[in-house]
UniProtKB/TrEMBL annotation:
Keyword flag Transcription regulation: no
Cofactor(s) of this protein: FAD
Stated name of the protein: FAD/FMN-containing dehydrogenase
GO biological process: respiratory electron transport chain
Entry similarity comment: Belongs to the FAD-binding oxidoreductase/transferase type 4 family.
Keywords carried by this UniProt record: FAD, Flavoprotein
InterPro entries xref list: FAD-bd_oxidored_4_C, FAD-bd_PCMH, FAD-bd_PCMH-like_sf, FAD-bd_PCMH_sub1, FAD-bd_PCMH_sub2, FAD-linked_Oxase-like_C, FAD-oxidored/transferase_4, Oxid_FAD_bind_N
Highest taxon of source: Bacteria
One Pfam family here: FAD-oxidase_C
Domain (FAD-binding PCMH-type) ranges: 35-216
A molecular-function term among this protein's GO annotations: FAD binding
Length: 460
């Protein structure tokens, strides 16, 4: 491998090729600390041309490639194995804005830009890029594309599939697919960019993307409301859609267990607790005070246990901070069996009831921490313990997953709504995914990457 590494250093520069453990350490463990790898090296290319040359060289030497963005994966999708033979390709140096067309509401950026930097580039042009995640300061747009990220505003704006107009991708043979485009309509053949969104780097390395921008809302109305059960929460969702249409940008829910954790680790921040808390946000053009008055008037006619409406931008941010702190708060409280599931929003109450009952029967005293994007049906359904002391938590994981996923698919759902599959879920995907769909995906993988060098060991 010395010849390969020497030639690779000639492509990207020796300063951007890390082989020492002290240099590679920050790339080799996933965000949750669950997966640990040992790469052959970490390569940091600085251009699409360098990525293409790197891929051609790796192919010639039969070296597998593991692409990595901000290393915020919760499923181990960007972590190398322990063989010491896989090349980790970190795209952090591809971090430039290539083009901005404010009149066309489009922005072309490189894959290594953080989501927060993309949001800021749009804001600097008085535009909005609406994808929003708790990890937006560190996750990168290439990773967002590779997992088809969703986040907090899917209800109004959609996932990365809907937010992407074009892609540039280095294919497994080193060719560069130039499908960057600001077009909204193009019927000249298959929309090949969609193959790479959600593929977790198994079909090629995304190096740049043209993203869809929107007019920046000038008015926001944000409320935290308490309701008695999940059925009431979904009734609120539909009533808000009827009353406000696409002004309803966000509809998040947090169980009472979540609220108790927030109260424990962020004392004095939560204004109340209820069986379920709803974080609601409307956005529009015009004036925030006027939109807020409309929301207050609507809320006055609803049946709720408690509620607060933000009266200033500072109060709005405090409400958002509570929701965005949920993942970090649960991590502080200890490990959990995480489920990034999706069901139709209408099925959420039944799923929660059935899953809770089944888990309690199997594991008396189990604690479920449920929260997430109820507006689009995506729940983070996490089991914090199955028995006192957490001693058996991960030994119980297969049975917990089976209970949860069986019910998810009974309700026409998915086991991966926005976090991807990675190393965590391939065997579960094989169990639940339509076999014809899996066969089609594997056919595409074989056609593009017959040697299986792109992010091997994953679900394809």
């Amino acid at each position: 491998m010395n010849d390969f590494l020497a030639r690779l250093a000639g492509v990207i520069g020796s300063a951007n090729l890390f082989t020492a453990d002290t240099d590679t350490a920050r790339y080799t463990t996933d965000q949750r600390g669950r997966y640990h790898g040992r790469p052959l090296a970490v390569a940091r290319p600085g251009s699409t041309a360098e990525v293409a040359a790197l891929v051609r060289l790796a192919r010639a030497h039969q070296v597998a490639i593991v692409p990595q963005g901000g290393n915020t994966s919760t499923c181990g999708g960007a972590t190398p194995d322990g063989s010491g033979r896989q090349l980790l390709v970190a795209l952090e140096r591809l971090n430039r804005v290539r083009a901005l067309d404010a009149a066309n509401h489009s922005l072309t950026v490189e894959a290594g830009m953080t989501l927060a930097a993309v949001q800021q580039a749009a804001a600097d042009a008085d535009r909005l890029f609406p994808l929003s995640l708790a990890s937006e300061g560190s996750c990168q747009i290439g990773g967002n594309l590779s997992t088809n990220a969703g986040g907090l505003a899917v209800l109004r704006y959609g996932t990365m599939r809907e937010l992407t107009l074009g892609l540039e991708v280095v294919l497994p043979d080193g060719q560069v697919l130039n499908a960057l485009s600001g077009l909204r309509k193009d019927t000249s053949g298959l929309d090949v960019k969609q193959l790479f969104i959600g593929a977790e780097g198994q079909l090629g390395l995304i190096t740049a993307a043209t993203l869809k921008l929107f007019a920046r809302p000038t008015a926001h109305a944000t409320a935290l409301v308490g309701v008695r059960d999940a059925a009431a929460a979904i009734a609120w969702l539909n009533a808000l859609k009827d009353a406000f249409g696409d002004r309803l940008t966000t509809f998040e829910i947090m169980s009472e267990v979540c609220q108790n954790l927030l109260a424990k680790y962020h004392p004095g921040q939560l204004p109340f607790t209820a069986p379920w808390a709803l974080l609601i946000e409307l956005s529009d053009s015009g004036d925030s005070a006027e939109l807020g008055e409309r929301l207050v008037a609507w809320l006055a006619e609803q049946d709720m246990l408690d509620g607060v409406v933000a009266q200033s931008e500072a109060e709005r941010q405090k409400l958002w901070q509570l929701r965005e702190a949920m993942s970090e708060t649960q991590k502080r409280d200890g490990p959990s069996i995480k489920h990034d599931i999706g069901v139709p929003s209408s099925a959420i109450p039944a799923f929660l009831d059935e899953a809770g009952t089944a888990l309690e029967a199997a594991f008396p005293g189990v604690r479920v921490v449920a929260f997430g994007h109820a507006g689009d049906g995506n729940l983070h359904y996490n089991v914090s313990y199955t028995r006192p002391g957490n001693a058996e938590l991960f030994s119980d994981e297969p049975r917990v997953n089976e209970i949860v996923y069986d019910l998810v698919y009974r309700h026409a759902g998915t086991l991966a709504a926005e976090h991807g599959i990675g190393q965590l879920k391939p065997h579960w995907l094989a169990r639940y995914k339509d076999p014809v769909a899996l066969a089609v995906m594997k056919t595409i993988k074989q056609a593009l990457d017959p040697a299986g060098l792109m992010n091997p060991g994953r679900w394809l």
